[in-house]
Amino acid sequence: MVRENFEDKLQVLKQQVLIMSEMAKVSLSQSLLALEQQDQTQAQSVFDQDNKINQIEDDINDQAIWLIAKEQPVAKDLRRLVMTLKVTNDIERIGDLAVNIAKSVLRINNEELPVEKQQVLTTASVVEQMIDLVTEAYVEEDLEKAFEIARIDDQVDRQYGDSIQKMLTYMTQHPSHISPITQLAFISRYLERAADHTTNIAEAIIYLVKGKHVDLNN
């Protein structure tokens, strides 16, 4: 009975992590829609969601720490709780990056953006796919999907480098557009960082299943 009660609490935590992950993904999607449409109202909507993400992170972490202290778990149970703390931190950072994107959209306002905006949105779509895939890996404890995240992250890194080079060239040729293009470059960087945090989550999944640390960012 005690073991079943502990397992129930772990499942509740897992469901809360999934809710938090979905909230962060919604925030990211809202910020990217705001970029695509250059919609100030849409950008503003991201800020309220961030407060909710921060609150659920605090709730999850409090519960995980309480379970570690009360149950003194070992082996995979302990790894699961440690992983929960790691994963919620990375999800929260993805939510923060969505806020940063929204702030950049507000700064761009209605200024004209070059064709490079579409390349940034293409990268954004890949990052959203990464979040979906790592969520599946988390639910299923699927190592193959976790390792696949690293391959996709390499693709995002290449796209980020290519985008920055094109933006630098554009700014050289159109110095009057430096301000909005700089914000677009920031957004590209935020997406690259979101991909890195998704990769961190994949590493945590591998740690849970295999009991060893791996570095997928290298």
From TrEMBL:
Keyword Repeat: no
Predominant location category: cytoplasm
Superkingdom: Bacteria
A Gene Ontology cellular-component term: cytoplasm
Cross-referenced InterPro entries: PhoU (IPR028366), PhoU-like_sf (IPR038078), PhoU_dom (IPR026022)
Pfam hit, one: PhoU
Stretches assigned to the PhoU domain: 18-105, 124-205
GO biological process, one term: phosphate ion transport
Entry keywords, A to Z: Cytoplasm, Phosphate transport, Transport
Coiled-coil zones: none
Subcellular location: Cytoplasm
NCBIfam families with a match to the protein in the record: phoU_full
Family designation: Belongs to the PhoU family.
Main function: Plays a role in the regulation of phosphate uptake.
Subunit note: Homodimer.
Protein name: Phosphate-specific transport system accessory protein PhoU
